[in-house]
Amino acid sequence: MVVTTTMKMVRRMAVVAVVLKWARTSPRRMLGAAAVVAVWLHNHRLERERAYYTSVFHMIQTVVFVVRKTLSVGFRRMVLGVSNHPYWTWYEEIVVRTINFSARTGDVTAPRAALDVFEGFQRVTATWIANASVRNVDMGLGHGKGDALWITLDKKTKLGSGPVILYYHGGGYCVGSAGMYINAHCEWLRRMRDEHGMEAGVLSIEYPLAPETKYPENLKFAYRAYDHLVDDLGVLPSSIVLGGDSAGGGIAFSVAKHAHEHRLHSRKTLPALAGIVLISPWVNHSCESDSHGEHVETDYIAGADLIGDYTMAYCGDKDKALIDPSISAIHSHVDFLPPIMLTLGTREVFGDDIRIFRDKLHQAGKPVTLHEGEECPHIHPLLWPLFDKHSTRALSQISHFCAQRIQFRENHNSISCAWQDRVFLSRVQCDSNRQLDLPESNPQQA
């Protein structure tokens, strides 16, 4: 600890000495150098605090941080031969720390502008480089062609013609968009096609964000998207895998409950959902688990104050969020769930909560698969191609789960869903996934 503090002081003194030596030749340079040092030190102080910059000022501080962190990481790794995060590459470290800084120094809506730019970049690379198809979809939900994105590898793949990954993006309910993970979704679909011969598409929903739209209106919008897909477009639930990350994972969980109730009250006989994939889901709005303290330096959505701000923006009542099962899924009953796949990074703050949620599913006798990305932060599969080995492996296992679930549902429509799920658990084997033993049952009991 003492050595680390000393190294930081020496590095800062060296930077100041270089700047002062350069500035001594001119009063203008001296003023400019003083301004640069002031901005630099202020930006460094912000790294440890919760600030509430908006729009332009937030963007300026983020740009300053990127420059400062790039120089700092480069100096430490190339000159000193050390790193605060040796398990990551230099650019992975900069990306994770920049996202953390951006989240902590702005109000809950501040990162939207940067994420819009990121989505535009994703669209260009997906359509021009990966040759994928990204189309806006009007689902009659009130946003016109901004209701959702239909992402496929083949332009001929029409919505309703085959399997669908119905996806809800993350972003603390306050930021993000349907297209911010297009490249990862394309890789997901590519692996389903190349490794399992299944041509599917991702329908990513552009649900209204908080704080402009608060709970439960966001959920109602998500429910209507599912109803439109099943009732109006005629897609069977057995061809649908629900997906979501972070806050979107919480929405996807609630949609699964809605899908179960929709099936029970439907005038026509409907099969159950094929499955659910939740990527680093936000299942508990409490920040009391050990991982919240242990990984505050290695995850980008970290700190009780920051997480609390997103909770308040979403539902306006922290106490309600802690116990309401439609907000904190960890408190919900899970009897209605089809087989589910969970992912987490061993360096993320939600890790312990996700493991507790996994245990709850196990105890309830639900088929559950868990993928853990070693030394990875929050939603690492969606950061592909960052964390290349781990994110690629996670997407491969996710695509395997989806393809197997859809194929299994389609091939076993004549037996009860509960019995299907138990048979499926005994058959599907994914490398490095944790398979759980469930109580034995039989078709009559199911």
Keywords for this entry:
GDXG_lipolytic_enzyme, disordered C terminus, 9 strands, hydrolase, 10% strand, 446 residues, 14 helices
Structural class: alpha/beta
What's the count of strands?
A: 9
The portion of residues assigned to helices is 40-55%
**Number of distinct helices:** 14
How many domains? The number is 2
Named CATH architecture of the largest domain:
3-Layer(aba) Sandwich
Mass-distribution shape: elongated
What amount of the residues lies in strands? 5-15%
Can you walk through the features of this model?
This is Esterase. InterPro entries: AB_hydrolase_3, AB_hydrolase_fold, GDXG_lipolytic_enzyme. Residues 165-378 form the Alpha/beta hydrolase fold-3 domain. The chain has 446 residues and is α/β, with parallel strands linked by helices. The chain has 2 domains: 2-104, no CATH class; 112-435, Rossmann fold (3-Layer(aba) Sandwich), CATH 3.40.50. It has helices spanning 2-23, 27-46, 55-80, 90-104, 112-129, 182-196, 217-232, 247-265, 290-294, 304-315, 318-323, 351-363, 388-411, 417-427, and strands at 133-137, 148-152, 164-168, 201-205, 240-245, 275-279, 340-345, 368-373, 434-435. Strands 1-2-4-3-5-6-7-8-9 form a 9-stranded mixed sheet, with helices on both faces. Strand 5 (240-245), helix 8 and strand 6 form a beta-alpha-beta unit. The protein is elongated and about 80 Å long. Residues 414-420 and 422-446 have low confidence and may be disordered.
